[in-house]
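During the reporting period the student researcher (J.K.) took over the structure-prediction task from the postdoctoral fellow and processed the backlog of single-chain submissions. One of the processed entries is reproduced below for the supervisory committee.
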Amino acid sequence: MAPATEVLLELRQISVRYGRVAVIHALSLTTNRGEVIAVLGPNGAGKTTLVRSIIGLVPPAEGEIRFEGETISRLRPHQVVARGIAVVPEGRGIFPKMTVEENLKSGLVFFDDDPARLRDRLEDAYGRFPVLGQRRNQVAGTLSGGEQSMLSVSRAMMRKPKLLLMDEPSLGLSPKLVDQTFAIVRALHREGTSILLIEQNARQALAVCDRGYILQKGAIVLSGSREELVSDERVQRAYFAADRNSPPTPA
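J.K. obtained the following structure tokens:
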């Protein structure tokens, strides 16, 4: 018998506004433990607002956000992080004038002052990406783009989050760096990390996700498994019509 599905994050009919302007409209989605969930959509669809709402920066005006069965809709960002949600922000968000190791420490020391745990988490980070260990004393702003992506992910993983939110990790990257970034997503998935992946790059996102949601103008217009979305004519027209290659397949 297959194990029961465990819902980790649940958004129930949330609406988000900036003043009187509604950006998210009655949106519902779920992320189950161990899944990679992709939320796809063009610029202006409301993807980053969705992330900001989940982590408490812009609480929903209506609806409910639940994490591990408990309501988190009105928690402050540091309280959301303490529950086990970490974010890889759009643009990576590293501290460019700090060293690699100082960046990594910043992912934990604000929440945990146990020196032994800090050492263990640093070892985990350097084990996952040995190049970061080689560059631990290097100023982060001098790293390559791929190394900065590794650093941003590693900093978020310092607290061993139950859910990792990745906000547009491929935005503005060269094709080579995009491939490297999604290789990181695949590696985290193999480790069992639960990921909510916010992306414009449908081809790459649909190659790594288990399920996905299509977001347009703040509303979910389509959802399903990776296979269902890839084979849907609407998705093919919107995302792959100009691509001579076939739709993505899981790597």
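The committee noted the following: Residues 175-190 form the longest helix (16 residues).
J.K. will present the remaining backlog at the next meeting.
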